[in-house]
Structure formats: C-alpha cells, structure tokens
Amino acid sequence: MDPASVIGLAGAVAGLADVIARTVLTLTDLRNAYNQSDFKLSALICQLATLKASLSHIAGMVNTPYGNAPSPSIQFCEDLRVSMYGCEAMVSALDARLAKFHQNKANGLSILGKIEVVLDDSTIDEYLSMLNNQTNALQLLLTTLQCQTSLAIDRKLQESSSRRIIDQVRDDTSSLVSLYDTASLASTKSTGAQDVSTTTPVSFSFDPEIFTSRVYQTAMRYQLRVSGNDDGVDESDIASSRLGINRRFSFSVHSEKAFDLEDSPLVIPDQGGTNQNPTSKIASHPRSTRGETAKIIPSKTSLPRTEISNVSKKILLIGSSESGKSTLIKSLSCAFDPFDEQTRQTYIEEIVENCVETMRLLVIETDIDRVGGDSGLQKECRLLMEDDNDRRDGLKMRKNLAGAISSIWQNSEMQLRFEHRRQHQEMYYLPTSSEYFLDSASRLADPNYLPTDSDILRSYCKTSGVCTFEFNSAGRSYNFYDVGGARSQRRKWIELFPKADIFMWTFDICCSGEVSQDHGGDSMEEQLELWEFVVNHHRIDFDATFVVIFTKIDKLTPAVISRLLSMPFFRGYEKDRTDVDMVLDHAAKRLATAVRGTRINVSFGRASIATSPTKMAEEAMRTLEQLHSI
Ligand SMILES: Nc1nc2c(ncn2[C@@H]2O[C@H](COP(=O)(O)OP(=O)(O)OP(=O)(O)O)[C@@H](O)[C@H]2O)c(=O)[nH]1
Ligand SMILES: [Mg+2]
C-alpha cells in the first residue's frame, strides 16, 4: 500500500470525528437523565474525546507534506489501516446503539429502561476498554511518526509491545459482534430475568437491525478482507498476515446461535469447483478458519456421515493460546483425512510468514543489526525488514530473502544470542517453531516447494472463530471444536460449555518462563490461572469430563523441567527429574488439586508432534477412548 492510500484513509477520519461528536452529545443527554451511570458515562465521554483528539492529530500529521520527514513505512500503513477500521467499526457501533434511544419511543420503555436494555454497565465497560485500546494504538502510531527513518518506524512497530497494542485492536474489532451477544446476555439480566447464567439469551427487536447495519457490515467486511475472502476488495487493502502479529480472521456468525454446537454445520458446501482460489472454499464458510485447519469438514469427506448426529461425541478443545489445539486438529486430519495438494498450497503463505516474522522478531529483540555495526549483517537485516513481497496466492519466498534469513540465522553472534535466550529464558516472545522454520528458509524458497505434513503442523496462525473436524474412530463418531485460546477469543468458550460432551484441554507443559504473546506475562502462570478459572466455572456441569493433554513433550528438556518444578504451583517434587513420566504425573496431580471439590472428572494424557504427524492424534484418541464415559 502506498503512502497516498494512507492519506485517503486519513480523510475518513473527518467523518468519524462527526460521529464521535454526535455520540458524545447523546451520552451527555443520557448522563443528565440517568445519574446512576454518571461516572461511567463521564468516563466514556472522556475516552471518546481523547480518541477524537488522537484521530485529528493523526489526520493532521499524515496530511502534512513530508519534507525531510520519513514517508510512512509499509508497516505503518498497515497498522494505521487496522486502527482506522477498528475505530470506525467501534465508534459507529456505539453510535448505532445510542441511536436506539431516539428510536425507541414506540415500545413504551422509559429512558431508564432503554439505558438498561441498550447500554448497561458491562457494555459500557467493554466500550471503555476498546476505546482505551484504540487510543493506545493511535498514540503508538503518532509516536512512531517522530522517528527519523521509515526503517526506524518499522522497527518501533515491530517491537513486541507495539505488536501487542495493534493486535489488541485487531482482536477487539474481530470480537465486536461478540459484544452484541454479551450485551444481549447482560440486558436479559437488567430487564429482570434472574441470573445470566441460568437464562438463555433473548433476542431483541433491534438485533436484526444491528446485523444489517452499516456498522456490522463494516466489521464484517473488514474481517472478510483480512481473511482474503471479499471478492470486491482491492487486494492492497488486505493487511498482510503476520505471525501472531497479524492473523487471519475467521468469521463466525454473530448471533446468539453463533457458537451453538448443535447448529454447527456438518458439511461445508462445496463450491462445485467453480472458484479457482484454493483457499476460498474454506474461507467462504462464515465459521471456518482459513488456513488454520484446512481440513474443516470437507464436503467430499470419505468418513461415514450417516446417523452421526445421535452418537457423535462433541469434544470442545480449549486451552491457552499456542498450546496446540489447532495442531491437534491438523494431526487428526493427517490421521483421518490427509491433506491433498491443493490444501497444502493454502499453507504456503502462512508458513513463509512464520519464517519471515520469526526472523524479524529475532533481529529486533537481539539488536543483531546494530551491535557496533560490525556484525556485517546490515544489508541482510535491511532486506528482511523492508521486504513487502505479497505472499498471498501461493507466492513463495524470494531467494534473496531466504538467503538473508539463512545468513542472519547462521551468523555465529546470532546463534550465541539464541542459545543464551534458550538457556536463560530472556523475556521476549518467540513462536514455538522458530528454529524449525529458520532452519527451513532455503527450502521454502524452492520454486516447487509444497508444505509437508510437518511444515503444516509446525506453522502457527492464531485461531479466531470456531473450527470443526469430524471423523469416526473405533466405531464411534467424534466432532472436535477448535476455539481460539487468545484472551479475546475466550468469551466464546462460555457459550460453548453447555454443549460439549467432553472438554479437551491442551496444556503446554513447556511454557514456564516464556512470555505470553497475549499480555506479556509468564505463559505458564497465565495457563494455570485459566485452568483454575475454567474448571471451577459455574457453567461447567458437575459431572463434566475434562481430558488434559500435556503438549510439546518433545521440548521437555532438563532445563525446562527445572523451570517448571521451580514454580510455586509445581513445587514439592522430590523424585528423579530426568523421568518425564514421573514429572508429568506430578504435574497432573497438581492440576487436579486446582479443581474444587469433586465436581468434575479429569483424565490426563500427553502428545507430541515430534516423531510423526499422526502421533498427536493417536495419543489424544487413546486417552479419549480410555474414558469410561465414552
Ligand atoms: N515442538 C512441538 N511443537 C508443538 C507441539 N504441539 C504444538 N506445537 C507447536 O505449537 C504451536 C501451537 O500452535 P496451535 O496449535 O496453532 O496453537 P493453538 O492452541 O491453536 O493457539 P490459538 O489458536 O492461538 O488458541 C505451533 O507452532 C505448533 O507447531 C509439540 O508437541 N511439539
Ligand atoms: Mg488455534
């Protein structure tokens, strides 16, 4: 995308500022009419004013003739676009929501009733948090514009803290309509219908209006653009996929039924081969995740599909982000419905991005391009950072880029730093399969490159939405549901809880001391908190069955075991530290203690993708089939 597009994009800011002004006026009216919400409404008004100021500032800066200032970098353009779409979708959503106050005269609700139905406390909280995230993103972009060169802008934007801010905005946009679901739930409560947890969400007369509104369409179009599935969209509009930094969005249907397992389709309709784009068959389904589980119930599946609905076990895959949920689905696919060539092609973009983005992260975090200027890698680093080759549609990595990645990776200083990080767990995020893809750079640049099973299993793309995979094994039928584990995705879990027969929890046993990509803390601590929260959640049935699969066993080195056992939660292990079985037994016992009372049944298993692509599936299935309840 060229800088001119940024200026065009910034032109849209003026329209947004008008919407914000109107929204602030309505909120001021409401605050006067309903004093109880005074504080929160004031906070909302304040946050909107800050957002408006940041927007005006951005518009001013990108419209200023550049002079000696650096022209906006590619990364800047992409991030600004993400932020603008997010702002527009969110501010317009709020505006549309508030417009209901003016329209609702006919239904006899008092102003108080209308406030409670349309804008209750939890909804205000959601908006406050999203507005805050948007403002942070705009302020980050403003800060980067102070940089001297576009390379410096890129570098600033590639820092993990910057990526987190932009990611958060992207997640907020993707969850925008989940907010409507939440609001519907909350409004059930505020209109007097007891506990949210014991009621089903009701539909409001305005829900259909929302789903057909411009706001909703905007959010939807944005998601489809990013998933590369909007026919009418200029390709340059599509933010390039970044490893864990950008991600491909899948788009779930946004209604109370959006995550209803009963309603999830068993067969994704085949497009009859009319669409030549190999990825669109998957992406075209609103609930599928393009590229993440390329084998999402293909219509031509050879698996028996009759009488499935009555006997099929619904397995809900949950666990923290990057713990191996989608990898398990891919492994199941290898075992039960192997990837064909066309599907493999669809993974090329993701795999190449994994490799390039991993190296970018490493360059930024290790400062390898700067150390005294004598690493001799400046040329390679520049090539890597400035590469904006469009890798969609199966375009492979360019040879010179692969060469640059290999040179940086094999540089002895880089190897030293990487080894140092491994041993001392320096606090910066790197994806699980970093080494694998960096070792593979030259292979990816082969013009005939076709991803292997292992490449597909090793690649990572954050799941957004719900993916399903269905198959028969040992005379039983299984339906796996893969839901994203990132923070913004977890609210969907709760909706799915009542529908699942079995909860399968992928527990990354190797992540202690690693940085969570979601919020920068220790990944294991976050994972433990999540486990404790979910197994004791009031919407989990008393006799629910949990199967915990310890993942990434192949990475359980003595150093990793030592880090794990030094955590307060896992302390107390006195036996042989080299005995993986005993260490895992200990971990299982500790996890079981987090379950309060005897309310749920928990079984434990383990899995790894190291020895064969189907191994993870086999191990998970073995654990599952040993359950008495199956
Ligand atoms: N070495 C190794 N890597 C693994 C193993 N299992 C998963 N991984 C890697 O860990 C990463 C996990 O990716 P996913 O399975 O997509 O993670 P996820 O849990 O679906 O994450 P979200 O979609 O963000 O919730 C991938 O890069 C996998 O290749 C394993 O057993 N061994
Ligand atoms: Mg996933």
Automatic annotation (TrEMBL):
Pfam family of the protein (one): G-alpha
Binding positions (GTP): E322, S323, G324, K325, S326, T327, L457, R458, S459, Y460, C461, K462, T463
Span list, region Disordered: 269-292
Keyword terms: GTP-binding, Magnesium, Metal-binding, Nucleotide-binding, Transducer
Residues that hold Mg(2+) according to the record: S326, T463
Matches recorded under Gene3D superfamilies: GI Alpha 1, domain 2-like, P-loop containing nucleotide triphosphate hydrolases
SUPFAM superfamilies linked to this entry: P-loop containing nucleoside triphosphate hydrolases, Transducin (alpha subunit), insertion domain
Keyword Metal-binding on entry: yes
InterPro entries hit by this protein: Gprotein_alpha_su, GproteinA_insert, P-loop_NTPase
Ranges of compositional bias, category Polar residues: 272-282
GO annotation, cellular component aspect: cytoplasm; heterotrimeric G-protein complex
Molecular functions per Gene Ontology: G protein-coupled receptor binding; G-protein beta/gamma-subunit complex binding; GTP binding; GTPase activity; metal ion binding
UniProt-recorded name of the protein: G-protein alpha subunit-domain-containing protein
Superkingdom, natural source: Eukaryota
One GO-annotated biological process of the protein: adenylate cyclase-modulating G protein-coupled receptor signaling pathway
Originating organism: Clonostachys solani
PANTHER family assigned: GTP-BINDING PROTEIN ALPHA SUBUNIT, GUANINE NUCLEOTIDE-BINDING PROTEIN ALPHA-5 SUBUNIT
